[in-house]
Amino acid sequence: MRTRRVAAIDASGCFEHSANRSGGKNRKAYDLHRVRPLGVEFYVRDPQAVGRNLLGKVLVRRLGRVQMAGRIVEVEAYLGTDDAAAHAAAGLTPRNRVLFGPPGRSYVYFIYGNYYCLNVSCLPDGVAGGILFRALEPLAGLDAMARNRSLNGEMTERRKRLLTTGPGRLCEALDITRTRDNDLDMTSPDSGIWIGDDGYRTRDIAVTRRIGITKAADHPLRYVIAGNEFVSGPKTIGPLSD
């Protein structure tokens, strides 16, 4: 029987819960030390390539002694000044300046007066581009994520899917705000938010149109790990071709 793994944190560190369909659980440490940070060169590329390659990587959040982490399973690419749906389409402004700056920086914005969204900048310094993180599969820090999301009770499979499925939930679970977390270096483990590789290899990637926008809505720039249960919205509309 295939085993599916997710993780939770307590005062002594990060733990992975391995659960099969019969409900049995086995606590095993998830070793965040095996996550190697992605360098700046990873982001000095077309956002379409960066978005595809980010799938399966690990987003790590550190707040004091608490660490949370999730596998990236859904992103959207925004192509810069020529992309009508991108914030950069308005040109350089105080709000979007991170997108025009060095690659690999966090861009956080507040939307609908209700929640934050996390992005990472792409392309060389001075050229705007970015990736929106839409969903993670939780790996470490589930208890902390649940507290941040005000989700009480037993960590059921359904509750796990409520933690980081969708960009607003993701930021709430990781306690991400613009005031504290905008323009951080996401290539450095010393940062409060960074991205690394733990050796996981994504097998099936699919592409869909971007979600929740009206401008340039038909562009197929949303990348997902096909069939992953933590993906928000439509799972696939077909295979991704290189």
Describe the structure in your own words.
This protein has 242 residues and is of the alpha+beta class. It has a single domain (4-203), classed as 3-methyladenine DNA Glycosylase, Chain A. 14% of the residues lie in helices and 32% in strands. It is built from 5 helices and 12 strands. The protein has helices at 47-54, 142-148, 157-163, 167-173, 178-181; strands at 4-10, 13-19, 25-29, 36-37, 58-63, 66-78, 106-111, 115-121, 130-140, 193-197, 205-208, 222-225. Strands 4, 5, 6, 7, 8, 9, 10, 11 and 12 form a 9-stranded antiparallel sheet that branches. A 3-stranded antiparallel sheet has the order 1-2-3. A hairpin with a 3-residue loop joins strand 7 (106-111) and strand 8 (115-121). The longest helix has 8 residues, at 47-54. The protein is globular. The protein starts with a strand and ends in a 17-residue tail after the last strand. 43% of the residues are buried.
Compute the number of strand runs: 12
Strand percentage: 25-35%
Derived structural class: alpha+beta
Biggest sheet, open or closed, and with what strands and sense?
Answer: 9 strands, antiparallel
The second-level CATH architecture is Roll
| CATH superfamily annotation | Methylpurine-DNA glycosylase (MPG)
Radius of gyration: 17 Å
Number of domains: 1
| CATH structural fold name | 3-methyladenine DNA Glycosylase, Chain A
Helicity, as a percent range: 10-25%
Task: Report the top-level CATH class.
Answer: Alpha Beta
Distance between the termini: 33 Å
Number of helices: 5
Mean pLDDT across the residues is: 87
Low-confidence stretches: 1-27, 238-242
Coarse shape? globular
Order of helices and strands: EEEEHEEEEEHHHHEEE
